[in-house]
């Protein structure tokens, strides 16, 4: 990268960068973080004599998943997890997971996806009647996220600055199992589906970036089936159709009502209707045809007031970092392993918010 390009992307002047490179002065914390983020490396890599080996992340949108060129926003999100993982391991922070989190090694069939989802739905413990009472993708998402984080998995929200990818599952060395959720370009219902999809990646031990709408390989198809069965069990869906007297085969508006009552995306409901035989493949094709190959608007935008309350900056930050990450960083700070500036460099949380967000 040229000096001019580095200057433009980092927001630092060429003279400031030159002074740092020539060792005329040391960079301050903000400058160090800006340079590291621009170059997509951990801050400590700027001082290393040998460049660290960063992970190569497969792109599961491909027929044969393999590393590929990705937009800066996606690379930045991956780099964030890399430097976070390396730092937490170096600090010897407890990153253990619940013993229930075992790797799935069976065949990637629809039947096995349904069986695995049934097992994990039981572990999750959310009764379908309670899910119907929620009538909110936000509430169902929060409930599932709490469960997944309770297993020791990190769930972090990041804006990818592109809708080409909806999420990722990363495991850097001995670092934590980490799910990234792209916060841009999708409704909470669609983020819920992405969360369930990426959780399946955790169970398979398949790290990489994904878009749950792009299915070109067995792994992504399996993860989508798992997510759909986990969020909408067959018995619950059939009972809901009878309870509310929905006729989704002839009334497409009932798809919206079904999705709204269960708290999931339109596409998730549409896929499950095919699974249980209410729709045929041609019915699904006709329904999708009205969107001309574009994701339904209801799956990309939340309705007004969907979050259920006024935005709170502290709560927003807690939501961004997630319970598992906050717990790990809080412990490290409480034990004197990190100070307020270390925390800022590590996760980007400014000192003025740390007491309220981290509780220390």
UniProtKB/TrEMBL annotation:
Pfam families linked: HTH_3, Peptidase_M78
Region (Disordered): 295-315
Domain spans labelled HTH cro/C1-type: 1-46
SUPFAM superfamilies in the cross-refs: lambda repressor-like DNA-binding domains
Coiled coil regions, renumbered to chain: none
PROSITE patterns cross-referenced by the UniProt entry: HTH_CROC1
Cited InterPro entries: Cro/C1-type_HTH (IPR001387), IrrE_HExxH (IPR010359), Lambda_DNA-bd_dom_sf (IPR010982), Rad_response_metalloprotease (IPR052345)
Family from the record: Belongs to the short-chain fatty acyl-CoA assimilation regulator (ScfR) family.
Protein name as catalogued: HTH cro/C1-type domain-containing protein
Source species: Sulfitobacter indolifex HEL-45
Lineage of producing organism: Bacteria, Pseudomonadati, Pseudomonadota, Alphaproteobacteria, Rhodobacterales
């Amino acid at each position: 990268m040229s000096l001019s390009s580095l200057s433009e992307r980092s927001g630092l002047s060429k003279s400031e960068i030159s002074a740092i490179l020539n060792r005329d002065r040391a960079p301050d914390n903000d400058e160090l973080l800006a340079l590291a983020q621009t170059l997509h490396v951990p801050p400590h890599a700027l001082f290393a004599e040998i460049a660290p080996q960063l992970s190569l992340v497969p792109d599961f949108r491909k027929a044969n998943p393999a590393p590929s060129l990705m937009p800066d926003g996606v690379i930045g999100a991956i780099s964030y997890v890399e430097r976070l993982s390396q730092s937490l391991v170096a600090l010897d922070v407890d990153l253990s997971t619940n013993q229930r989190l075992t790797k799935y090694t069976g065949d990637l069939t629809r039947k096995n996806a349904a069986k695995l989802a049934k097992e994990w739905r039981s572990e999750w413990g959310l009764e379908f009647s309670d899910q119907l009472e929620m009538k909110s993708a936000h509430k169902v998402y929060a409930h599932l996220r709490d469960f997944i984080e309770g297993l020791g998995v990190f769930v972090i929200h990041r804006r990818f600055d592109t809708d080409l990818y909806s999420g990722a599952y990363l495991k850097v060395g001995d670092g934590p199992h980490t799910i990234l959720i792209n916060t841009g370009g999708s409704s909470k219902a669609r983020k819920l589906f992405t969360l369930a999809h990426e959780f399946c990646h955790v169970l398979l031990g398949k790290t990489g970036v994904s878009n749950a709408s792009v299915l070109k390989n067995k792994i992504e198809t399996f993860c989508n089936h798992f997510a759909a069965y986990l969020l909408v069990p067959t018995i619950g869906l059939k009972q809901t159709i009878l309870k509310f007297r929905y006729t989704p085969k002839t009334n497409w508006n009932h798809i919206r009502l079904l999705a709204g009552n269960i708290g999931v995306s339109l596409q998730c409901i549409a896929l499950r209707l095919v699974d249980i035989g209410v729709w045929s493949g041609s019915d699904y094709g006709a329904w999708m045809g009205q969107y001309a190959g574009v994701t339904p608007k209801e799956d990309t935008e939340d309705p007004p007031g969907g979050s259920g309350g006024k935005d709170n900056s502290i709560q927003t930050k807690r939501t961004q970092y997630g319970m598992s990450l906050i717990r790990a960083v809080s412990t490290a700070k409480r034990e004197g392993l990190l100070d307020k500036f270390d925390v800022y460099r590590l996760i980007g949380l400014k000192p003025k918010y740390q007491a309220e967000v981290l509780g220390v």
